[in-house]
Design a protein that fits this description.
38% helix, alpha+beta, six-stranded antiparallel β-sheet, 8 helices, single chain
């Protein structure tokens, strides 16, 4: 078991950020580059061949998805017999930020960055399968980056049935083992709803959802957009994040105009 303060190759482990069923994530210090990194270390004694292949696939996907809003891979190598995957270290994740209220303008900016990242992945036929606030990393300059492609799947032709994901953000069909790009759309819609309404909707997702009154008051132009994104029937949602992003930008523009008119009146 790895311990805080331990050296792993050139990395000195400073604190554990998260623990999953198959990996630890540490804040570590790169003693050669003198920069902090987020270091993901699979728990080797628990990995079978399929799980090891999943981590190696995450590395390959992260290496080829180059976008300002996707967390880039810094390094991946076997160190002292352990696979170590290094990423840039952010300030916090979106879930931490949602512990206190966001302004509408800030929420719209973060939502657009998330959808740009997801659209980039979908254009390359990569489905994330675990879009949630904990996997959206915030940096000091205001940039949001989508992280953790460990559950990502390739195009529908190679997609294997999977019920993986995080309870609370998983689309109904994904929970039944049929994920698609529309499943990512549903998860992203839940995040946008939570940022604007202040609450996370729950099953059975019947409108009006909890927090609907606040959403209507603060961002009414986003209501039709979110109603489509959160359809229980996946066929009635946006087909992917590319289409979702386009619709979001129209709603965002209308919302910002409404906010400006409200500011002038006040």
């Amino acid at each position: 078991m790895l311990r805080v303060g331990q050296r792993l190759g050139k990395y000195r482990l400073k604190r554990r950020l998260a623990r999953g069923g198959f990996a630890d994530v540490f804040e570590a210090f790169d003693t050669l580059e003198h920069v902090p990194v987020a270091l993901k270390v699979p728990l080797a004694e628990r990995l079978d061949a399929a799980q090891r292949a999943d981590f190696e696939r995450e590395i390959r996907i992260s290496a080829r998805l180059e976008h300002p809003n996707i967390l880039p891979l810094k390094n991946a190598d076997y160190v002292d017999g352990l696979l170590a995957i290094a990423y840039p270290m952010g300030e916090r994740n979106l879930n931490d930020r949602l512990a206190y209220r966001l302004s509408v303008k800030n929420a719209l900016e973060l939502a657009e960055q998330m959808l740009m990242a997801l659209a980039h992945a979908h254009e390359r036929r990569v489905i994330h399968c675990d879009v949630k606030p904990e996997n959206l990393i915030l940096f000091a300059d205001g940039t949001l980056r989508l992280a953790d492609f460990g559950l990502a799947k390739h195009s529908a032709r190679t997609l294997q049935a999977s019920s993986s994901g995080t309870v609370g953000y998983v689309a109904p069909e994904q929970a039944m083992g049929r994920p698609s790009a529309r499943s990512d759309v549903f998860s992203a819609g839940l995040i946008v709803y939570r940022m604007l309404a202040g609450v996370l909707p729950e099953w059975p997702y019947r409108w009006p959802l909890e927090g609907h009154a606040r959403l209507r008051r603060t961002a009414p132009d986003l209501v039709p957009f979110l109603q489509r994104a959160l359809q229980l029937d996946a066929r009635r949602r946006f087909r992917n994040a590319v289409q979702m992003l386009s619709a979001f930008r129209v709603a965002k523009k209308a919302t910002l105009r409404r906010l400006e008119r409200r500011r002038r009146r006040s």
